[in-house]
Amino acid sequence: MPYDESVPPTRRRRSLLAATAFAAVCLTAAGCGAGDDSGGTRAEPGQGGSGTSAPPPSKSAPAPDRTSASPTPSAKSSKPSGSSGSTGGGATGPLSGKTVVIDPGHNPNNHLHTGEINRQVDIGTTHKECDTTGTSTNSGYAEAQFTLDVSHRLRTLLQKQGAKVVLTYDNDRAYGPCVDERARIGNEARADAVVSVHADGSAVGNRGFHVILPGLVRGGKADTSKIVEPSRDLGTRIAGLFVRDTGSAPSNYIGGNSGLDIRKDLGGLNLSTVPKVFIECGNMRDPKDAALLTSAGWRQKAAQGIADGISSYLNG
Predict the structure, then answer these.
(1) What is the 3-state secondary structure (H, E, C) of 33-67?
(2) Exactly one of 44, 129, 143, 280 is catalytic; which is it?
(3) For 304-315, what is each residue's pLDDT tens digit?
(4) CA-CA distance, 167 to 68, in Å (whole number)?
(5) Which secondary-structure segment (H or E) carries 199?
(6) Residue 129 annotated among the catalytic residues of the structure
């Protein structure tokens, strides 16, 4: 499936000093606004429904990421949704008593199940694909491998702080889960925060991260009215601390330098009843960003930035 190379605004070069200043502003939880919801043609990353945002991995499936120890699934898991990742919560720490759901975008085997993932599901205001393949670097490192690796690192960091952590999937099923199921797992867990981990697939020269926030949506099964503000708080804190921990600058092509974007077309946000955001950690199709995304050391920094943002929100 082709990916949508959204026409970028005039690119601005940012220095690390500017990124540090952004982090200081964002930590006030009030200084990083987002523009209007772009919706429309930019396709949903990861949580299903994207269909056009990024090309699938190379025709020959890329080698598994050796930093992720989970086995390769051969069929759908019989376990209840999210049960494989429901761990922690017994330890004492600043997040003791809190539940965090981590949603690793895509599934490495989605490209083998196109019929299943192209099935339309109800996202409240419309219908979209069950899930999508995600993107990959030019060298074949798949977004789904990246998201699962960062999610594992993030889980470990949160568990050390005493949080109960639930993964929407842990390489334990052949494809998916679908976008509506990903949202349902967070809702049924009564999560205090949900973060969907992704990497973008845009044009070369488009660099940096952005955090996607839910817009105000009411229609059918979708009603985000109660989660818009807490999700903005969560996303703003993650954005600021992601800058601090990774040294990466906010996106130069989405969000008007804020590192934040509002979307109303994402089923994973529309169907959520608990605070939730997406994070696009970088652009896999840009060689400079790809060099970061394929680095285990940088992925650890990315996980730390997300964990620090979640912790700041839950303890704020």
Answers:
(1) CCCCCCCCCCCCCCCCCCCCCCCCCCCCCCCCCCC
(2) 280
(3) 999 999 999 999
(4) 14
(5) strand 193-200
(6) no
